[in-house]
Design goal:
Blueprint (H helix, E strand, L loop, with lengths): L9 H17 L4 H13 L18 H18 L15 H9 L21 H9 L12 H8 L23 H6 L3 E4 L5 E4 L1 H14 L12 H7 L22 H4 L21 E3 L4 E8 L11 H8 L5 E3 L6 E7 L4 H4 L6 E12 H10 L1 H11 L4 E7 L5 H20 L4 E5 L2 H19 L4 E3 L10 H11 L5 E4 H8 L1 H4 L2 H10 L6 H10 L3 H9 L4 H16 L10 H11 L3
Parallel strand pairs: 4-5, 7-8, 8-9, 10-11
Antiparallel strand pairs: 1-2, 3-10, 4-6, 6-7, 7-11
C-alpha cells in the first residue's frame, strides 16, 4: 500500500512496503533487506523511469529490481497502461552527486586492483614445465615434445609427470600444462607431434624463478638457462641411464636359503645364556650403505616397478628382493664379498638398525580389522632392530568410510607410537614416501659409512639368545652398535624360526577379539604356558559356581591394572568360554 508521506516513487514504494509487511509476518530473514530498501527509496527525491535504475540505491540488487519490474509490467497490463521501456543507461544523472552532497564529502574513486604476476608453487607441475622449457634459447624455433619436456622437467617437480599420485586418480603433473596454456605462458605448435614453447610472459616468469633461485646474481639472461636447471636439481644427481640391480636375479633364494642359518636353541630353558664373542669389525670404506626394497612393494598391479624406477631417478638404486620382515630396510654391503665368511658370518651384507613398514590408509584399516596389524608389530618388535618406522600413506578414501573408521585409525597410530615406541611418518602419496626413503638413504650413508661396524658372528646366535644378547650389549655399551648379517636376520625373522612356545601362546591369546599384545603379555606373566592356563580353569571346579569362577578368573587378577593392560569382566568371560571346558 502507498505511503502516507509524499514520495517521488509512490507505486514502487507501496510494493516494497507490502514485501516488508509480508517478511515481518513470516519472520523471514529478508525482512532486514526489504526494510533497508524501503528506507532508501522513501528518502530518495528522484523519480525513476524504470525499476532497473533502483540499483543505485542502498538495499536494491538485481533480484529485487527484477521483481519490481515484473510487478510493474503486470500492473500496466491490468490497467491498460503502456509498459515503460528499460533505459539504456541504468544510472540517473545527478543522483550520485546528491548522495555525495548528503555524505558531506566527495567519495574517493575506487582503486583498481593491480593484477598480480603469476608465480607457480615451488616444485609444482607448472614450475617444472617452465624451467624445462627455459632450457631452450629464447626465440628458438625448435620446441620440446612432450617426452623431451617431461625428461627435463621431472627433476624440478615433486609429483610424477607420467603416473598419478593415486591409482584411483587420473591427473598427473602434466595436467598443469592446461593452466599454462590458458594463462598464455606456453604455446604449442605442430600436428600430430606437438612442440611446446614459452611465450614472452612465460619467459618473464622463468626469469623471476631463476632470479629467486640465485638472488646474489643480477637478473639473468634467458639464452643459457642450463646452469639454472643444475641449481634446482635435488642434491642427488639424476643418472642418465640406470643399471638394473643385480639383486633382482637373486630373487629365487627365498626363505629356504636362510631357514637353517641360525639354530633355534633350547626353547625349554627359562633364560638364554649370554655368549662371549669377538665381534667382526668392518672398517670405514670397506662397505657401502644400500636400500633394500621388498619386491611386493608396488604402486599398482599394472605398475610394479614404479617405486624402483622413481628411486633410481633420485640416485638411489634399491636392491629388490622378497623380505622376511618389513617393506624396506638398509644394509651395509661389503666391497669384499668374502670378508664376512672368513670371519664367521654369512654373505656380504649386514643389517643396520633401521626398518620400514609401509601402510596405505585402506591397508591399515584392513590389517587392524583382521589382526595382521598386531602380528606385524609383534614381529617387528621381536626383530631386534632398534629403529622401526611406520609410513602411513593417507590416500584419498571414501568420506563415509573414513568417518566411520577415523577413531580406529587414530587409536592404531597412537598405539604404534606410544605403546610400541615406533616412529610414525605420515605421507600424502607414494611420491612423498619415495622422497622420504631417498632422504633416509642419504642420511644413513653419512651416518654409517664414516665409522666402523661391529658384527656379531652368526655361530654364537640362536633364536633364544638373540634378543637377550642385544639387550645386554645395549645396556653395557649404549653408544656402540652391534649388528648381524642379512642371512642371520632373515633366518631369525622368518615366522617358523622365531615361533617359540611363548610366541605361539601369545598369538593364541591374541586371536581372541579385544585381547591386545599388552593384555596377552600380562596373561602370560601369570600363567606361563597354555597348559598352566587350561589347568587353572580346570581347578575352578564344575557346576554353576565353578562356571562363575572361570568367568571371573582372569578379571579377578587383571581387573585392577591400569590402561590397556586391564581386562574387564565381559572380556574375561569371553576368554573363559574359549579356553575353559564347555
Amino acid at each position: 500500500m502507498p505511503s502516507e508521506e509524499p514520495c517521488a516513487n509512490p507505486l514502487l514504494l507501496g510494493w516494497v512496503q507490502e514485501w516488508v509487511d509480508q517478511a515481518r509476518e513470516r519472520n523471514s530473514k529478508g525482512f532486514t533487506t526489504y526494510r533497508k530498501a524501503y528506507a532508501a527509496l522513501k528518502a530518495c527525491p528522484v523519480t525513476f523511469q524504470h525499476p532497473s535504475q533502483l540499483q543505485q540505491l542502498k538495499g536494491f540488487g538485481p533480484k529485487l529490481c527484477n521483481r519490481l519490474t515484473e510487478k510493474l509490467e503486470k500492473h500496466c497490463r491490468e490497467n491498460g497502461l503502456p509498459v515503460p521501456k528499460r533505459p539504456r543507461r541504468s544510472t540517473v544523472p545527478g543522483l550520485a552527486d546528491r548522495d555525495d552532497e548528503q555524505d558531506g564529502e566527495e567519495r574517493p574513486a575506487k582503486r583498481q586492483r593491480k593484477a598480480r604476476p603469476y608465480v607457480p608453487a615451488l616444485r609444482s607441475g607448472p614450475y617444472a614445465i617452465i624451467l624445462g622449457l627455459a632450457t631452450l634459447e629464447e626465440g628458438s624455433r625448435n620446441g620440446l615434445t612432450k617426452p623431451q619436456l617431461i625428461e627435463v622437467a621431472q627433476p624440478h617437480c615433486d609429483a610424477s609427470f607420467t603416473a598419478p599420485p593415486d591409482p584411483s586418480k587420473f591427473y598427473t603433473a602434466w595436467s598443469s600444462m592446461k593452466t599454462l596454456l590458458e594463462k598464455d605462458l606456453v604455446y604449442e605448435k605442430g600436428r600430430p607431434t606437438r612442440r611446446y614453447f614459452l611465450t614472452e610472459e612465460g619467459w618473464e616468469v622463468a626469469r623471476r624463478i631463476q632470479q629467486t633461485l640465485n638472488p646474489t646474481q643480477p637478473r639473468p639472461e634467458p639464452s643459457r638457462p642450463e646452469p639454472e636447471v643444475q641449481e634446482v636439481q635435488p642434491a642427488i644427481p639424476r643418472p642418465i641411464t640406470r643399471s638394473p640391480s643385480l639383486e633382482v636375479q637373486d630373487q629365487p633364494k627365498g626363505e629356504s636359503s636362510y631357514v637353517d642359518v641360525v639354530t633355534s636353541g633350547d626353547s625349554s630353558s627359562a633364560s638364554a645364556s649370554i655368549p662371549n664373542f669377538r665381534p667382526i669389525r668392518l672398517a670405514p670404506g670397506s662397505f657401502e650403505v644400500q636400500l633394500v626394497l621388498d619386491v611386493r612393494e608396488v604402486r599398482a598391479k599394472t605398475d610394479r616397478d614404479y617405486m624402483q624406477n622413481e628411486l633410481s631417478k633420485r640416485g638411489v638404486n634399491p636392491i629388490m628382493r622378497s623380505l622376511e620382515l618389513g617393506d624396506a630396510l638398509w644394509i651395509a654391503k661389503c666391497k669384499d664379498a668374502n670378508f664376512l665368511s672368513r670371519h664367521g658370518a654369512e654373505g656380504d651384507e649386514v643389517v643396520l638398525d633401521y626398518i620400514v613398514e609401509r601402510k596405505r590408509l585402506d591397508d591399515l584399516i584392513g590389517s587392524v580389522k583382521d589382526g595382521r596389524f598386531h602380528e606385524q608389530k609383534f614381529r617387528l618388535k621381536r626383530s631386534g632392530v632398534k629403529n622401526v618406522v611406520y609410513i602411513i600413506e593417507e590416500i584419498a578414501l571414501d568420506s563415509e568410510i573414513l568417518e566411520r573408521r577415523a577413531e580406529m585409525v587414530q587409536s592404531a597410530i597412537a598405539s604404534t607410537q606410544v605403546v610400541n615406541g615406533f616412529f610414525v611418518k605420515k605421507t600424502q602419496k607414494i611420491d612423498d614416501t619415495i622422497r622420504y626413503l631417498t632422504r633416509m638413504t642419504m642420511l644413513l650413508k653419512k651416518q654409517y659409512e664414516s665409522k666402523p661396524l661391529l658384527v656379531i658372528p652368526t655361530e654364537v646366535l640362536t633364536a633364544q639368545n638373540y634378543l637377550p644378547l642385544l639387550e645386554h650389549l645395549r645396556e653395557k655399551e649404549p653408544s656402540t652398535g652391534y649388528y648381524i648379517s642379512y642371512p642371520a636376520f632373515a633366518s631369525l625373522a622368518s615366522k617358523s624360526d622365531m615361533m617359540t612356545l611363548r610366541d605361539l601362546y601369545l598369538k593364541m591369546l591374541m586371536c581372541t577379539r579385544q585381547v591386545s599384545g599388552e593384555k596377552a603379555l600380562e596373561i602370560q606373566k601369570r600363567w606361563k604356558t597354555p597348559y598352566d592356563f587350561v589347568k587353572a580353569f580346570e581347578n575352578c571346579g564344575d557346576g554353576e559356581a565353578g562356571k562363575k569362577r572361570k568367568h571371573e578368573m582372569v578379571s579377578g587378577q587383571m581387573g585392577n591394572l591400569f590402561g590397556r593392560k586391564r581386562i574387564t569382566k565381559p572380556l574375561s568371560q569371553k576368554i573363559a568360554e574359549i579356553w575353559a571346558d564347555p
